[in-house]
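so my prof wants the structure for this chain in the tokens format not the other one, which i didnt know existed until like an hour ago. anyway here's the sequence
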Amino acid sequence: MSNRSKSPSWILLHGAAIVAVTCSLFSGLRIATLDKPALITIAELLPQGEVHTVHFVSAILLSLAAAGYLISRIPYFRNLSGISTPKPINYHRLVTWGGVSLLITSLLSGWMLFNGLGPLPWLRSIHFCSAIGLVFYIFMHGGVYLMQFGLRALPFILKPSLPKRQYLPLVSLSLGTFSLGFLLVGSWYLIHGYSHHPLAVAGISPNTIINIDGMASEPQWQQAQILTLRTDGGANFYKGRSDVQLKALQNGQEIFFISPGKIPMRASPTCP
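here's what i got, hopefully its the right format
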């Protein structure tokens, strides 16, 4: 291992990536237990509660860390043509390339799933496989470093070196962009109430009687707007996905929901 310490920007981005990947894996594996019965065996080790929020925020953090890393590497790419002798290929370099490929695949498939782009069942499988690959990458990368160098590896990744004078403006820009982007995107997410698909709720009088019979025969239901959600990954969804419609009414004290239309589903051994 080289005795050269890492730059402050590398330490910050590396630390952010570690936190983001850890949170993404734990929250993502908890979400995957819904349609991956094999993960039930480790369910007690996974977090509970609002894991979708944790997964989304960690995806934002990881995306910004990746963007900050690319910005910080601009000087290296500019000087790449002047490098005559390429660095030798070794175990850690190959593992790092594999980890970067898994991170890129995970980010692309995750954001495509979030926006409903592409074949969702295939994207979900790719996203899950890249997550499992990242679990192995952590042990093959960090685990092997610790076994090979012991605690001597920690100062190498935690003790910063002073960046060169000509890189200071670029490092400051990278850190500023990273911090500002995380604050802006995080604030947008919190302001919008943790919802990617807002449901408009029509108001009715408290004296209006709504029969809970699933018929939606009251005229007030005609005032409610329909929200169509594309769901996927369920245990008994037809062809792996279903389009669900929702309507809602509220009288200030109670809220009523109904799903008009028939949801296409198929029978399964656990959900007939």
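also thought this was worth mentioning. The CA atoms of residues 27 and 52 lie 7 Å apart.
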